[in-house]
């Protein structure tokens, strides 16, 4: 069995959005029960360890045990935004596990991440499955949609096959028929990304209420990160301003940024409105409820950073 897709074991999937990887994948010896994924990853001699309580219909994060006893995950977990909250919380039960493999470091070692204890890899995969949601963002779908998922949608959804991704479906079905596939760096239009993300959530058995909650959480996390990035630098109180910390699909109490950073925060908010929030609306989620917040306080500059006083 050969697979150029072994590169995916060495490259974090969160970087693949920036890369075009030419690969050729032969699948003549790939078994349906080995955890391998058409056009993405072939396990070779490694054994698929199932996350039997994953809470999803299909396992996205798959753990494989090598003959030497260590385990790796496809896709790799480093850089996954659903681990960020754990990395900022030393008391979280999973934090020691992430630290063991440098997953809270800026640049984790691929060799270390690809040689985890099986129980640790399964614990991380389980946590990620509990947060899994496919999101349309700026003409892309995150997390990465493997080719075999695209092929499954093409084979089971006539509308998807004939209108939404007609050209891509033609390519994937021809590749499956021939038994080989060359990656062409496919991208999505915003409309294709939206429909693909929604169908992927259905395919993976993520319930609509879970989708709604996870999209709202992701929106809050995304805007909070944008606000935090624009809270400095400042020199005086006049450099700072209180702004709304909300989007069309989440609500939170006010925050403070530099006046120079307001435009960047507004751009992040607009991207949420156009992408994730549009997806949440089409999913049929309930309206957002505003949280109880204290009256706006004064903006101040403390040690070069804008804060509320």
Brief write-up:
This protein is an alpha+beta fold and 309 residues long.
Q: How would you describe the overall organization of this protein?
A:
The protein has 309 residues and is α+β, with helices and mostly antiparallel strands. The chain is built from 13 helices and 11 strands. The strands form 5 sheets. A 3-stranded antiparallel beta sheet has the order 2-3-4, covered by helices on one side. A two-stranded antiparallel ribbon has the order 1-7. β3 and β4 form a beta hairpin. α7 crosses α8, α7 crosses α9 and α11 packs antiparallel against α12. The protein is globular. The N and C termini lie far apart (63 Å). The N terminus is likely disordered.
For the report, how would you describe the main beta sheet?
A: 3 strands, antiparallel
Helix content: 25-40%
Average pLDDT score: 88
| Spans where pLDDT lies below 50 across 5 or more residues | 1-8, 15-31
> Strand fraction band?
5-15%
What is the distance, rounded to the nearest whole angstrom, between the alpha carbons of the first and last residues?
63 Å
Shape: globular
Write down the Rg.
Answer: 21 Å
- According to DSSP, the number of beta strands is 11
In which order are the strands of the major sheet placed? 2-3-4
The helix/strand series, from N terminus to C terminus, equals HHEEEEHHHHEEHHHEHHEEHHEE
């Amino acid at each position: 069995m050969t697979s150029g897709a072994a590169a995916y074991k060495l490259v974090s999937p969160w970087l693949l959005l920036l890369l075009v990887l030419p690969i050729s994948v032969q699948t003549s010896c790939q078994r349906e029960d080995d955890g391998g994924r058409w056009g993405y990853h072939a396990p070779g001699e490694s054994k698929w360890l199932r996350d039997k309580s994953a809470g999803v219909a299909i396992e996205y994060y798959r753990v494989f045990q090598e003959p030497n006893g260590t385990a790796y995950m496809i896709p790799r977990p480093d850089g996954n935004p659903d681990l960020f909250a754990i990395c900022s919380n030393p008391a979280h039960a999973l934090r020691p596990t992430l630290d063991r493999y440098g997953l809270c470091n800026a640049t984790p070692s691929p060799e270390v991440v690809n040689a985890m204890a099986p129980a640790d890899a399964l614990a991380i995969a389980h946590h990620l499955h509990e947060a899994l949601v496919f999101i349309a963002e700026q003409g892309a779908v995150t997390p990465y949609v493997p080719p075999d998922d695209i092929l499954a949608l093409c084979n089971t959804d006539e509308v998807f096959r004939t209108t939404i991704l007609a050209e891509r479906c033609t390519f994937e079905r021809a590749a499956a028929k021939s038994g080989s596939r060359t990656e062409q760096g496919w991208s999505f239009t915003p409309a294709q990304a939206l429909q693909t993300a929604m169908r992927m959530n259905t395919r993976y058995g993520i319930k609509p209420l879970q989708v709604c909650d996870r999209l709202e959480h992701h929106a809050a996390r995304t805007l909070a990160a944008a606000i935090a990035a624009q809270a400095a630098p400042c020199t005086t109180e006049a450099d700072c301003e209180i702004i709304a910390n909300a989007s069309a699909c989440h609500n939170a109490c006010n925050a403070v940024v530099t006046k120079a950073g307001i435009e960047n925060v507004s751009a992040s908010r607009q991207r949420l409105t156009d992408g994730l929030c549009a997806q949440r609306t089409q999913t049929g989620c309930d309206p957002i409820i505003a949280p109880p917040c204290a009256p706006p306080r004064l903006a101040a500059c403390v040690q070069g950073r804008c804060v509320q006083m």
